[in-house]
Each structure stands twice: as structure tokens, then as C-alpha cells.
UniProtKB/TrEMBL annotation:
It comes from Sphingobacterium daejeonense. Pfam families: PALP. This is PLP-dependent cysteine synthase family protein. Its cofactor is pyridoxal 5'-phosphate. Keywords: Pyridoxal phosphate. Residues 3-301 form the Tryptophan synthase beta chain-like PALP domain. CDD domains: CBS_like.
């Protein structure tokens, strides 16, 4: 079964980052999942629930609005289980993700934006509208599906706790739908309320406002384009009680640190993973870290999904592909 290969991803101590920041920096490498991203976890929980509760009949179509990774995971799982997938992606979705969606047989519809169910030309609105008017389809709706949080509460959080022998002190997670950080944060804070959970979003995204109880502006926010994270609305999958603080980071700092990390370590960071590292670098003074802390950076996918956006000017695409295939 596909589910037997989802989760239990490595937690790797990064020697370079640990030395640089004089603490213990641990990387949760989610690209070791079958679909090569953390979204396999939520996709499995959402798909399994829909099938078990008869929300979709055999051979039906799973529908999702996605920046790419959740769509890829749903397409992969659906194909394995004998279902189809139709994925609504935003115009900014990377070429690499589009190619993967096609390879898994997904039908793809590109949309103007992903600004929420209230915006008629958004991925969410169009996905819901399609599913509501098409027989034997199910809109997994990751932004409001409780299984998104449940997946990380049941799997990712416990893994981090076990892999650190219960000594984790800080976790940094990029915030898109809010499911990953909410599930991880809930579980870890139940084990130890002192664990600090920091969310990372692009400059001018709205989670920071929400955490400070500042009203979300009526006009759509124009946040920095960092694929996979940031929102103009607050999804139902986000639990502010599981999060201590949201850090913002700009696109230029994210791109810059992705290239620097590649040059020093030889590893390719995914876009939101680079944002997490950039946020650590920018906001580390606020975190009051000690040399004994155990700081987990949640890296949801791999840089091979952003070659044209982040790395094509560093080395050849062929060389990047060879490095990546050799590393997994």
C-alpha cells in the first residue's frame, strides 16, 4: 500500500548550519516521501477518509486547489488506488510541478490566483465549483479539511518527538494552508508546552496580522511570491493556538540563501524550505537559542521542483538532476 511508504522521513543534523548558528540544527527531510513532499501525509489522510466514508465512488475524480505539491500527492495516490485527479493550480506553479502532475495522469487547470473561495477566478473557487457540478468527484479542500491537520498531528509531530528523544525545543515551519504547522504544533505542545513553534510566511502575507488580532484588510494582500507559502485569507486548517509566532521573510532573502546553501552544502532547497532557513537567519536573535537547543527546520520538498526558479544559473539542469537522483 502507498500509505506504508508515507512518513518516517529522516531528521538530519546539519553540521554546517549547527556550526554557523552555534546550536543543534536538525532538518526534517520530507522529500523522502513517495511523492517527494510532506503533502503526501495530508493527501493520504484526506483521500482515505473520503473513500472510507463513501464521499466518492470507485473510479471517481479527486479535485484539489494546489500550488503543486498537494496536487501531485493526490494525483499519485489517486492513480495507485484506481481513481482520477483534477488539479486547479495557480499561474505561478513551477514547470517542474506541472510536468509531475501530467506524469501522474492528472487533469490540470491553471487559474489566475489562489486567493480563496470568495474570489471567483481563484483555484479554490473554481475547484469547488467544478466538483459541485460534476458527478462522482470529491473536493479534498486542503484549506478547510481537518484531515490536513490530523495527518501531521498523527504522524509528523510524533516522528519529530521520537527522533529528538523528546528534546526538541524549537520548530520552524512554512505556512501555506496551515495544516503542517497546526498538526505539528498541537502534538508537540501536548508533549511539552515549552516547545516553541514558529511559522514562516512571505512579506505582506496575512498570518502575522491574524496572530496579532489585527483585522485582515478587505483588499487582497499582494505578498511576496514564495511558492507554497503565504495567504491573502486565513484557512480553516490553521490553528493559531498551536503557534507561538509568525516570522516574515522577503523573496530576495529566500532566493539568496537558497543559492548560498547550494554552493556551500551541495544541497538544493525547495522554495519554502529556503524561506524557513532565511527566516532563521534573519530572526535568530528573537529566538534566544542556546548551544543545547534542538531546532527542527521543516523542509517540505526538494529544490528539484524549482530548478528554473532558483538554480538554473548556478549549474546545469542535468547536473542538478544527477545530484538529486544520487541523494535519494
Amino acid at each position: 500500500m502507498v500509505r506504508d511508504f508515507i512518513g518516517n522521513t529522516p531528521l538530519r543534523r546539519d553540521e554546517y548550519l549547527s556550526m554557523r548558528y552555534n546550536t543543534n540544527i536538525l532538518i526534517k527531510e520530507e522529500f523522502h516521501n513517495p511523492g517527494k513532499s510532506s503533502k503526501d501525509r495530508a493527501a493520504w489522510f484526506m483521500v482515505e477518509d473520503a473513500i472510507k466514508t463513501n464521499k466518492i465512488a470507485p473510479g471517481g475524480t479527486f479535485v484539489e486547489a494546489s500550488s503543486g505539491n498537494t496536487g501531485i500527492s493526490i494525483a499519485l495516490i489517486a492513480k495507485k488506488l484506481g481513481y482520477k485527479a483534477k488539479i486547479f493550480v495557480s499561474a505561478s506553479c513551477s514547470d517542474e510541478k506541472i510536468d509531475l502532475l501530467k506524469s501522474y495522469g492528472a487533469e490540470i487547470q491553471q487559474c489566475d490566483n489562489s486567493n480563496g473561495l470568495h474570489v471567483f477566478n481563484s483555484t479554490q473557487y473554481l475547484a469547488q465549483n467544478y466538483s459541485s457540478n460534476t458527478e462522482n468527484t470529491y473536493f479534498t479542500n486542503q484549506y478547510y479539511n481537518s484531515n490536513n491537520i490530523k495527518a501531521h498531528y498523527k504522524t509528523t509531530g510524533p516522528e519529530i518527538w521520537t527522533q529528538t528523544n523528546g528534546e526538541v525545543t524549537h520548530v520552524l515551519v512554512g505556512v501555506g494552508t496551515g495544516g503542517s504547522i497546526s498538526g505539528i504544533g498541537r502534538y508537540l505542545k501536548e508533549q511539552n508546552p515549552k516547545v516553541k513553534i514558529f511559522g514562516i510566511e512571505p512579506k505582506d502575507s496575512v498570518y502575522s496580522l491574524y496572530m496579532q488580532n489585527i483585522p485582515i484588510p478587505d483588499e487582497e494582500a499582494k505578498f511576496d511570491s514564495i511558492e507554497g507559502i503565504g495567504r491573502t485569507f486565513i484557512p480553516g486548517a490553521f490553528d493559531k493556538n498551536a503557534v507561538d509566532e509568525i516570522f516574515q521573510i522577503d523573496k530576495n532573502a529566500t532566493v539568496s540563501i537558497s543559492k548560498k546553501y547550494r554552493e556551500i552544502s551541495g544541497n538544493l532547497l525547495g522554495y519554502s524550505s529556503a524561506a524557513v532557513l532565511a527566516a532563521l537567519d534573519k530572526h535568530i536573535e528573537k529566538m534566544n537559542l542556546t548551544e543545547n537547543d534542538q531546532v527542527v527546520l521543516f523542509f517540505p520538498d526538494h529544490g528539484d521542483r524549482y530548478i528554473h526558479k532558483l538554480y538554473k544559473d548556478l549549474v546545469s539542469i542535468e547536473e542538478i538532476s544527477e545530484d538529486y537522483n544520487a541523494s535519494i
